[in-house]
Amino acid sequence: MTAAATLSGGAGVTSELTSAVTPPHCELVYESPSDLVALVGDCLVLLMVKELTPLCVNGVGRGFASLTRRYAKVNYFSVIEQGTLVMHPEARRDMAKVVSKHTRSIKGAAIVCHGTGFVATAVRSVITAIHMASFASHPLRVFSAIDPALTWLGSKQAAGELDLAALSAELERLRARFI
Questions:
Q1: What is 6-175's CATH topology?
Q2: Residue 99: helix, strand or coil by DSSP?
């Protein structure tokens, strides 16, 4: 993968590269050196290692649109790595709009914010502010580790709706791209 942002559905090379490195059950929607959006079954996965950019938020919107064409209800799982900066104001505003547009379709949103101290607290506060500003009606919970977040998201599903083992494996594989 190149250091430049990669958008699925673009030039043929991008599509070929995406399918060559991404298993069929995981669809890469957006990737840059600082963030990534993927679809794993009925779950939108957002990984951030530096900052959330407006381009990534666009990928989140496209990902939710794609999922809601396939599924009546979808899931959202985000991992914010330690040291990630607070969002650009434009990205924060755009993310609130995306969440507001898709909130009725979201079964649950689990967000993992690694880290301690001021930056991690600020990021958690921004997440809460976006959820409130978007008048979101879906359940959302912020965690400091992945396993409890997966367990909580699983509790928001009917039996057998979400393959937690497969989602966990994909999260690990996708995170390995950055860390």
A1: Transcription Regulator spoIIAA (3.30.750)
A2: helix
